[in-house]
Amino acid sequence: MTTSDDVVKWVSALSDDQAGVFTFSSCVCLSDMYGDGDTKLVVAHIGSSKFNLRLKVIKGVTVVGECALAEMPTAVVSFYNEKFPRKSTKRIQATLPAIGVASGSFIRVYKNLKPFYQYNTPSAPVHSVEQEAWTKTAAKQLTHDQLFIVIQNLANEISSKLLTPMSRTLLTMKPEERPAFIDYYAVPKYMNNFRNPDRHSHLFILLNVDFKVHELGLL
Questions:
Q1: What value does the CA radius of gyration of the chain take, rounded to a whole number of Å?
Q2: Which GO terms describe its molecular function (predicted)?
Q3: What pLDDT digit, counting tens, does each position of 14-32 carry?
């Protein structure tokens, strides 16, 4: 006899084993993107390389909109940055929501999946082991495989979240894609400006934006 405890209490509203979406928990949010009253899923898709970073809007199991991301995202939030008085009631009404994406050293804001504005954020110290590994690779003192092993071991030791976006991207790439990626970035142009955007600053800014939205009662 089946008891009430054996009955599944939760219904899976959406399940797609072949969605092909790879992201982090901080890179997912819900938003009424088009102001039609239908809340959609917004995902910063990490992909498998720097060439497949996308901001996707999903309705049900269908991607209804997307745009390219310039750098590896670390957080996403939906918020209202503009408001205007409604003529009939003279009450303040929000416009279409914007999507804030923390990526690289920037907070980038998109409106209707189009770049709206961006601003730079403070940098955090780059781990000495990571800095040395990339510098030695640029000087041809480490091979591609040796660099990957160093970065992978460091990620296991201190968490990949504390690495630079460049190293985090490297860890997500397929083996055959790594040499071209490393050769492109392991050069003086990038090594002389090796920075680690402060992920905590990203999250602090985005969470404060989200807090202000709720404080104004716009959600």
A1: 21
A2: patched binding; smoothened binding
A3: 666 666 778 878 889 999 8
